[in-house]
Amino acid sequence: MVSTRIAKRPLSSSKKLLSTFLFLWLASCANQDDQFQKRMQEILLWSATAEMILNARLGALVPKGFTDLAVERCQKQIVDLSSELPQTSKYAEARANIVKLERLIAATDDEIGRGRFEQAHLHLIELHQSAVELRRTSGADG
Question: Which pTM was predicted?
């Protein structure tokens, strides 16, 4: 009768080291992806907040003093959160799109301030479309 047992040999120290490294690397990647998803959701929430505030300002539903401070806060949060994203090439496109969101928020605010409401409305549409696209491409659809 032939034994079907396979003798287990202890891993060599180099294999243990490699196994540990691979485990830590995989855990790091998963943690990085989780961090990215969380930050993206927060960025998109601040972008939606800015969009809502600017839309209300465009419709003369809220005073300029409120919108100036609120939009400034949204922009600061977006910039701060985007700086916390992992700085790898995997997330480069998302970071570039976040810069676009922030620029559209600033442009919309500027156009409203200058009384160019039609152009501000077009920027709001583009802001919304950019946020939807960023949500879709980043996988941050919650």
Answer: 0.75
